[in-house]
Write a structure and sequence with these properties.
Elements lengths: L2 H10 L1 H18 L7 E8 L18 H15 L2 H16 L11 H11 L1 H7 L5 H14 L4 H8 L5 H7 E5 L5 E8 L2 H58 L5 H40 L2 H31 L4 H29 L7 H39 L1 H43 L3 E3 L12 H26 L6 H8 L3 E6 L10 H21 L6 E6 L7 H15 L3 E5 L11 E5 L25 E5 L10 H4 L4 E7 L6 H14 L4 E7 L5 H4 L8 H10 L6
Parallel strand pairs: 5-11, 6-9, 6-10, 7-8, 7-9, 10-11
Antiparallel strand pairs: 1-3, 1-4, 2-3
Helix pairs in contact: 2-16, 4-7, 4-9, 4-10, 10-15, 11-14, 12-13, 18-19
Length: 724
């Protein structure tokens, strides 16, 4: 739906859109003329949800957003609960009955008189205890429990001032921003009732809230006391197990004892290592001394060799003395002997050194001392071996003790951990028990202090503003929107063909022409001109098709699937227009008519009989003098009501299907049109009849209509035609 279509719909249904809301608004205004004025009282209660109670107990408590919201929801539901409202209602009723006379601070005189009248004189006397609301409340409770058919029972459950459901309806509770405050508002037609009801609501809520908290606290104390006994028993058991284990394994201080064993092991290993070093040193010294002592035989051989060399040296010296005396003849021999003597002397010196080394060590120790050292080293080696064996046996003992002592650490640690865990549980439970007891003491102190009401309920001096205007405006706007939505829904859900687009989509072909719905009343639209324009457009299109198929006489058929589509009307318009501009026209119709005539048009009726289906052509329907007529227009009966002359319709030059725009397209229309097209051998043209004037603009252009300058301006504005 376009904006222009929407505005046209609004203008067309203006009286309905304006009249019905005005009528409903006037009705609401009249019905609310004697409405009662209401009074509203308010109170504020401090809840201490976010301002944690734990802050007073020496620790900080963090409350997140969801927890705080949940607690406030619980408090709001508690204020609005049936129990709270019922308690407040009965307290208020007892207070009013106990009044000796009407008091505007408690209840208006007219409401007081109404209450006495509703209760009746007998029940009033039975319940009335002057200036004693507590005694009156006791009588009320006793009466309600005994007799549930009395006037008192009806008042307690249905009266607007005392019934719990009525109080809940008028009670409003909300959290004031993000604070710990609850704002409670109550509205009533009596200022005293508004104030006193809130006071009783506060008292009932405070009592019920303390009962719940007290019950929770008592349960918590009992729970923590039981858990503390269990934790203490478990702690004692773990401590005894640790004590017995340390006594059985002779553990004074596991870590010091383990350290001592480790130090002892290290000292013993050091002693073993020193003994091994002494044994190894003595063994090496003994080997050297044995080597020195084993050189005696070598010395004897060296001495013998030395003696031989000395003898050879003496011989050579004697021979040289002789050669020196012989003079020059023995000079060569003398030189050779001297060389030989030097060699022998060198060997003697070397042997002497070897012999000296055998008699003394490299350090110059005599052989006698070497023997003593050998004996001492042998004794030292034996002593070191014995010391090593002793220390090694001690090391084995220490290692065995360490192997037995090492696993005790894990078991001892497990027992100590068990003691620590049970001790933590015991201390935590003890702490929680103390906190619960402190909270109980705090609740007792709060009860003595008188509650958490920040702003007590006030007595409303002025009534609330009347809602009469809002009711009237709501009725006007609501009814207007309802009617508008209903009209738009009707327009959108309308299945009628209505316009060319729907007709072409339904019939599956282009629409040849359109004709308006002629109004029965006078209209600002010139429908005669619109109708004439539509028929001329239709004829123009048909003439364009006929020019392609010239013939002496044209036979046009008008048909429709249903009756009442406007075939006769369309036939008359075509015949009248063609008779005026194209010569003689013969119009045949199955309907009798006597009051219609047109220039150059002959009207003749025919009756479809049982042979109508088998007509080979339409010549039998024509008069004998039909030859001079240029156009013959035959209106066929509705296809749903009469049989179709299949053979005869094929002889027609043009086929026009008249379609009513004010009805929906049916499946039967589709099937009948397909059958007709098959029989005619060509596609039929569609004439869309009885269209709304607003839907004709897409085909015929702007509809001639008397418009004010303002409407003309707005139309140009909405259609963006600013140049006109």
């Amino acid at each position: 739906m376009t904006l222009i279509q929407f505005l046209r719909l609004v203008f067309r249904k203006f009286w309905l859109l304006a009249g019905f809301p005005l009528l409903l608004g006037a009705l609401v205004f009249v019905l609310s003329a004697d409405g009662k004025r209401n009074y509203k009282s308010q109170t504020v209660i401090y809840t201490a949800v976010n301002s944690s109670e734990a802050a007073t107990l020496g620790e900080a408590m963090k409350i997140d957003f969801y927890t705080a919201n949940n607690q406030f929801d619980n408090l709001i539901f508690l204020v609005k609960s049936r129990n709270t409202a019922q308690s407040a209602g009965l307290q208020l009723l007892a207070e009013h009955i106990s009044l000796p006379q009407a008091d505007s601070l408690f209840i208006l005189p007219e409401h007081y008189a109404e209450l006495k009248e509703q209760l009746g004189e007998n029940e009033w006397k039975e319940l009335h205890v002057p200036n004693n609301a507590s005694a009156t409340l006791g009588k009320i409770n006793a009466s309600l429990s005994k007799n549930q058919s009395s006037a008192l029972f009806y008042i307690a459950n249905n009266h607007s001032h005392y019934a719990s459901e009525k109080i809940q309806e008028k009670l409003q509770v909300r959290r004031r921003e993000s604070s710990d405050m609850l704002e409670i508002t109550f509205e009533s037609d009596d200022p005293g009732v508004a104030q006193r009801t809130l006071m009783h609501i506060n008292a009932a809520f405070d009592l019920r809230h303390r009962e719940i908290k007290g019950a929770q606290n008592s349960s918590a104390i009992e729970y923590f006391e039981a858990q503390l006994a269990i934790a203490e028993k478990a702690l004692r058991k773990a401590e005894n197990a640790l004590r017995d284990f340390m006594a059985a394994k002779r553990i004074l201080n596991y870590y010091e004892q383990g350290k001592y064993l480790d130090i002892t092991r290290l000292e013993i290993e050091t002693d073993v290592r020193k003994a091994e070093q002494k044994i190894e040193g003595a063994r090496e010294s003994r080997a050297k001394l044995e080597n020195m002592l084993s050189m005696g035989e070598k010395r004897s051989m060296l001495v013998d060799s030395l003696v031989v060399l000395r003898q050879n040296l003496v011989k050579l010296q004697t021979e040289n003395v002789s050669l020196e005396k012989s003079g020059q003849a023995g000079q060569l021999r003398l030189t050779a002997n001297e060389n030989q003597m030097r060699q022998v002397q060198a060997r003697i010196d070397a042997l002497s050194e070897q012999i000296f080394s055998f008699e003394n060590s490299k350090e110059g120790i005599p052989r006698k001392q070497i023997m003593e050292s050998y004996v001492n080293n042998l004794l030292l080696e034996e002593e070191s071996k014995q010391a090593r064996d002793v220390v090694a046996s001690k090391r084995s003992t220490i290692l065995e003790e360490m192997d037995a002592f090492a696993p005790l650490g894990a078991e001892l640690k497990s027992l100590e951990r068990e003691v620590t865990i049970n001790e933590d549980i015991y201390l935590t439970t003890l702490h929680n028990l103390h906190q619960a007891r402190l909270k109980r003491e705090k609740l007792i102190k709060d009860n003595e202090g008188g509650g958490n009401v920040i702003d007590p309920p006030f007595f409303p001096l002025k009534p609330e503003k009347s809602k009469r205007l809002f009711l009237v405006l709501g009725a006007l706007m609501g009814s207007f929107i309802f009617i508008l939505v209903a009209l738009i829904a009707k327009q959108l859900l309308n299945r009628n063909i209505r316009n060319i687009q729907r007709a072409e989509k339904a019939a599956g072909r282009a629409v040849a022409g359109v004709l308006p719905l002629m109004p029965k009343k006078k209209s600002p639209i010139d429908f005669a001109k619109v109708q004439q324009t539509g028929i001329e457009h239709l004829l123009g299109r048909l003439k364009m098709q006929q020019n392609a198929e010239p013939s002496s006489q044209k036979l046009w058929l008008l048909f429709s699937s249903q009756s009442g589509e406007g075939k006769t009307h369309v036939g008359k318009l075509l015949a009248e227009t063609m008779g005026r501009i194209n010569g003689q026209v013969l119009l045949l119709s199955p309907h009798e008519t006597t009051d219609w005539t047109a220039s150059n048009v002959r009207w003749q009726a025919y009756t479809p009989d049982e042979h109508f289906l088998n007509l080979p052509n339409f010549s039998s329907l024509l008069p004998e003098d039909a030859a001079p007529y240029s156009y013959v227009i035959i209106e066929l009966p509705a296809l749903l009501e009469h049989a179709l002359p299949v053979t005869a319709i094929a002889s027609a030059d043009l086929h026009l299907m008249v379609l009513n725009a004010r009805r929906p397209w049916a499946e039967a229309d589709q099937r009948l049109l397909a059958v007709y097209d098959q029989a005619a051998g060509k596609g039929a043209q569609v004439v869309l009849n009885r269209m709304e004037a607003d839907d004709l603009e897409d085909t015929l252009g702007e509809i001639p209509k008397k418009r004010s300058k303002i409407r003309a301006f707005f139309k140009r504005l909405l259609t963006f035609q600013f140049g006109k």
